[in-house]
Amino acid sequence: MAESNEHQPLTEAVYYILLALHTPMHGYGVMQFTKEISNGRLSLGPGTLYGAIKTMLERGWIQALETEADSRKKEYEITLAGRKVVQNEIDRLQELVKNGNSITRGE
């Protein structure tokens, strides 16, 4: 049975991988997307990426798409459960920013 864990904080790498997979893509595309959207701050190595993909597949947050038999590239896409996880993380991060702003701007 797939684990939910949909309310746990995400690592930055997992967050960006899930964002990338709103559009189906292969691993190298995810690495490029992540580097681009983070302005080069986050550069995923293959070990990090494929370890995270394995975990997210097990949790049901992403799914592998059917590929042609002779294709070596696997494509992945986010699932409905993964979309819920991303939205929960966005809500959590917005709360952090709101709390930080209310305290620091009140000084």
UniProtKB/TrEMBL annotation:
Residues 22-87 form the Transcription regulator PadR N-terminal domain. Pfam families: PadR. InterPro entries: Metal_resp_DNA-bind_regulator, Tscrpt_reg_PadR_N, WH-like_DNA-bd_sf, WH_DNA-bd_sf. SUPFAM superfamilies: Winged helix' DNA-binding domain. This is PadR family transcriptional regulator. It comes from Psychrobacillus insolitus.
